[in-house]
Amino acid sequence: MNQRTKTMAENRAKIISAARKAFAEKGYTSASMDELTAEVGLTRGALYHNFGDKRGLLAAVVEQIDTEMALRAKEIGSQAENVWEGLLAEGEAYIRMALDPEVQRIVLLDGPAVLGDPSQWPSQSNCLEATRQTVRELVAQGVMKQVDTEAAARLLNGSALNAALWIAASSTPQEVTPKAIEAFRLLASGLKRLSPDFF
């Protein structure tokens, strides 16, 4: 990596970091791009060069946080005793992250308002692909019913995402969260094949 490329990458990281702080504290609408760039010793030109505009900067911040959320959820899921429980734990972890003020404001409130349908975001596409792989594995193992992989993955992801959006928009997020998690687990359990013990 040459010096110019390295400097550009550093500037991009600085702007994203400052924007993340500003968007979390003030919200997208109130965050000032002049203050933000001045804080990291850069010009508005650097911001426009890297992100196009304020909306492009929000998209970069949302992608960073959403990717971190997916990795955190995956890490939690990997600690479960089996793949099925891991799938449920990942979904539950993602839903619980809606209680994080930064996640709530940037990803779940400002993100959809400015960037549109979250299911179309690149970071969500990555989550969907990971869920597809897990569903394929569970169907192959006979843990999950013979279900269309795409349909099951989209509905599982969609229910976790919509639960998180509900929590973020709620005036009583702490009360809503356990209800959302219980409903998510019940919905998901409908995809599980009953073991022979149940017949």
TrEMBL record:
Keywords associated with the record: DNA-binding
Record-annotated HTH tetR-type domain positions: 9-69
Pfam families membership: TetR_C_41, TetR_N
GO molecular function annotations of the record: DNA-binding transcription factor activity; transcription cis-regulatory region binding
DNA-binding is among the record's keywords: yes
DNA-binding region: 32-51
The UniProt record lists the keyword Cell division: no
Protein name: Transcriptional regulator, TetR family
Lineage: Bacteria, Pseudomonadati, Pseudomonadota, Gammaproteobacteria, Alteromonadales
